Amino acid sequence: MIPKIHALTIALTALVAGCQTTTDVPADLGGTTVLFYNQAHGVQVEYYSKNGRSYLWYPGNPRSLQGKWKKKMDGKLICFSYPSYSYNPVTKERGGDWKCRLTRDFERNVTQACGGDVFRLASGKIPFVLKKSRSQLNDLKKTCS
């Protein structure tokens, strides 16, 4: 029997075979998986589809959260909208409205970008429940290589 952690590593590695990675955020996020880290939220992973849908893998959530994304003002702003039932534990706000921020501020928290839906987040399923700590970031970065 393969230990659970080892089996997970094998499964994640198989998902990203041939994935092109970068630490630079592509100008067009469509078709990109991005790994983030900041102290308030912890590790997050999000896939941005070409049709403006996003799929967020957030610490503690048992599924990916489907939302929407778009850029405005010639790419200077990036905006997100998540369902009204969603809740941001850091800002203490419910979803439902569009929230925009400067693209350069968004990019500051990116630790890696990878072409494609590397973790198959658009399915709604996640490989495992993320913890808020930074400890899982290096494993996820290796998987997205």
Explain the layout of strands and helices.
Elements: H1 4-15, E1 21-22, E2 32-38, E3 42-48, E4 53-57, E5 65-72, E6 77-81, E7 87-88, E8 93-94, E9 99-102, H2 103-108, E10 110-115, H3 137-143
Antiparallel strand pairs: 1-10, 2-3, 2-10, 3-4, 4-5, 5-6, 6-9, 7-8
Helix pairs in contact: 1-3
Please characterize this protein's 3D structure:
It contains three helices and ten strands; from the N terminus they run H-E-E-E-E-E-E-E-E-E-H-E-H. The chain has 145 residues and is an alpha+beta fold. The strands form two sheets. An eight-stranded antiparallel sheet has the order 1-10-2-3-4-5-6-9. Strand 3 and strand 4 (53-57) form a beta hairpin. The longest helix is centred in the N-terminal third of the chain and has 12 residues, at 4-15.
What is shown here, in short?
The protein contains 3 helices and 10 strands.
Largest sheet: 8 strands, antiparallel
Estimated helix fraction: 10-25%
Q: Look at the helices and sheets and give the structural class.
A: alpha+beta
Side-by-side strand order of the widest sheet: 1-10-2-3-4-5-6-9
What's the number of extended β-strand segments? 10
